Amino acid sequence: MKYIIQFSILLCMGACCSCGQTIVGSTITTNTTFIRFDPNPALLDEISHLAPKAQSEYLVFQIKTNIQGDNLEINWRKATAIRLLARSSVSNKVEILIDNISFMDEKHRNFPAYYAFQEIGESAVAPLLEFAISSTDYPAVEGAGGTIRAILGPQKYQELLDANKERMSVPTLQLLSTTIE
């Protein structure tokens, strides 16, 4: 089953979306694969009727208003919105994703912001690094490190750590260094 979304996103749907299908947009072509991600069909249907700018605004609204309570449907909607935000035109999407870095997708048991950051790519590295340096939420710091490493690759990641180690607390440096192994 496939959905075409107004801002030109094609998502492969399924219980495990590891087909490697290329996602094609009007300005984006990527080979990013989402691991165990099936988007919320109700949210996809809602945004498919909106203009591209309105879709982006609606995704931000979903992220900001859906809290991570016990309602799995609301949680799934927010997780879908977080993943789709990476491909939207929202100018402050990295900041919104950092605010939601610890949000857990209860359906897929993962953190959708990490996948969104990977889709954004290298422009997300500097804000993620600043978050890691300034945060005491060590599980999120470790996740940010793993995400940066996935974006840059092991060698560039090590170079980034070496260049910034004087700015990091000992626990942060230890966490980010263990991400390398």
List the keywords.
single chain, 181 residues, mainly alpha, two-stranded antiparallel sheet, 9 helices, 4 strands, 54% helix, disordered N terminus
Helical segment count: 9
- SS-based structural class? mainly alpha
Secondary-structure element series? EEEEHHHHHHHHH
CA gyration radius, whole angstroms: 16 Å
Main beta sheet: 2 strands, antiparallel
Residue ranges: pLDDT <50 for 5 or more in a row? 1-35
Subunit arrangement of the protein:
single chain
Order of strands in the sheet with most strands: 1-2
Which helices and strands appear, and what pairs or packs with what?
Elements: E1 2-5, E2 9-12, E3 23-24, E4 29-30, H1 41-48, H2 52-65, H3 72-85, H4 93-99, H5 112-120, H6 125-134, H7 138-152, H8 154-164, H9 170-178
Question: What would your notes on this structure say?
Answer:
The chain is mainly alpha-helical. It has helices at residues 41-48, 52-65, 72-85, 93-99, 112-120, 125-134, 138-152, 154-164, 170-178, and strands at residues 2-5, 9-12, 23-24, 29-30. It has a two-stranded antiparallel ribbon. The protein has a two-stranded antiparallel ribbon with strand order 3-4. A hairpin with a 3-residue loop joins strand 1 (2-5) and strand 2. The longest helix has 15 residues, at 138-152. The protein is elongated. The protein starts with a strand and ends with a helix.
